[in-house]
Amino acid sequence: MTTEQTPVPSTARGGVVIDVDSCKGCELCIPVCPPNVLEMSSDRNASGYRYPILHDGCTGCTACQMVCPDYVFTVYRRPRSKKGDGQAG
Amino acid sequence: MSAPSKQLPIVDSTTPPDGTVKVADPNPSLILGAHSLCPGCGEPVALRLLMESLQDLGIVDRSIGVVGHGCYGSFVRIMDIDVLQCLHGRAPSCATGIKRVRPDSVVFTLQGDGDMVNEGLQEVLHSAARAENITCILLNNGVFGDTGGQATATTVVGQRTKTSLDGRDPAKHGYPIPVSDLVASLDGSGYVARGHVGDPGGVTRTKKMIKEALQSQLDGNGLSLVEILTMCPTGWFVPAGEGPNYQQQSMEQTYPMGVLKRPGGAD
To answer: Within a domain: residue A71?
Structure first.
């Protein structure tokens, strides 16, 4: 695990804001993520739990937000372009 | 599961990405602060769905919750809604009183399986038989989670609990009681459904069931019941992340999902 990496700005269609200190480390979000871009950290939060970190590629599908018992995820998505030119933004 | 897309870089998840709009907020305004339940518990998800359903239907200001006793009893501290916490298992009877005195209110009960099926089976059955116009939400995890994971009347055959260490044995412990099927068989019930919160599809379907149940109450169709299977990894002795899998292999085999009864005929 590479939590030491410096986070980069997301280029994906969506993204999540993770409320790290609310997380209790249950890992329910990890298998339900369709693009499989969530991974548990090696670090621990203030309560001593590992928490999810986000890799690039989130689609903003809200699956993690739906199953999370601790209300950790706020989900954002880029509006689709009107012309359908194949670009996410 | 396959490995995460580790080749892709870690992205910043402390602020919203540029140019995006918020599509889902995990904190409904009716939930004030954090709850105190275990990691991997399904009950907070059910609470969120219930609060969101009340908001979606626009009935928050006339909703009254009647909460039983169990882990979810601590939700009375964080539910921004009128709440009565009553004796163990007696929520449907208290809800009956509230609904009869204030017929314009929307009354729902929040009960666990130990509360509804062990302590208060007669309350919910008689309320259904009387066609009381209330909505009962059953959070069914098959154990008394609040007291440490003892078996309840809904523990499925073979399930290991603190009081059935070798698995529930019908010869010793009897068979589980499918309370939703009992309520659905009564003429006084209007809407009965069973959902779960173990995966996103289950969460979406369960929210639809809760809204339909509340709408059934608004339409005056008699008692409505939504049984929600919630994970209790602590009581099931499984890792928190294994809760949905365990639930799928044990409880969902005994309690099939779906709408058991709806006004105008079941599915």
So the answer is: yes
Of A28, A31, A74, the CB nearest to B22: A74
Q: What's the rounded mean pLDDT across residues B243-251? A: 93
Specify the pLDDT at position A1: 45
- A1 within domain boundaries: no
Question: B220 lies in which domain range?
Answer: 43-143+178-261
Confidence of residue B261 (pLDDT cuts 50, 70, 90): very high
Q: Which amino acid is at B245?
A: N
CB contact under 8 A, B24 and A65: yes
- The shortest C-alpha distance from A39 to chain B (Å) reads 6
| Closest-CA distance of chain B to residue A85, Å | 17
Look at B24 and A32 and tell me if their CB atoms are within 8 Å: no
ipTM of the complex: 0.87
Where in the sequence is the domain holding A23, given as residue range(s)? 14-77
How many domains, in total, are found in chain A? Answer: 1
The DSSP call for residue B85 is E
| Nearest chain B residue (CA) to A47 | B39
Give the minimum alpha-carbon distance from A40 to chain B in angstroms, rounded to a whole number: 10
Q: Which CATH number does the domain housing residue B232 bear?
A: 3.40.50.970
Question: Hey, is B196 helix, strand or coil?
Answer: strand
Instruction: Write the pLDDT tens digit of every residue in B60-84.
Output: 999 999 999 999 999 999 999 999 9
> Which of B1, B5, B21 is nearest residue A55 as measured by Cβ atoms?
B5
Structural domain count of chain B: 1
Q: Burial level of B249, CB count in 10 A (0-12/13-18/19+)?
A: exposed
Burial B208-238 (b: 16+ CB within 10 A, else e): ebbbbbbbbbeeebbbbbbbbbbbbbbbbeb
In a domain, A21, yes or no: yes
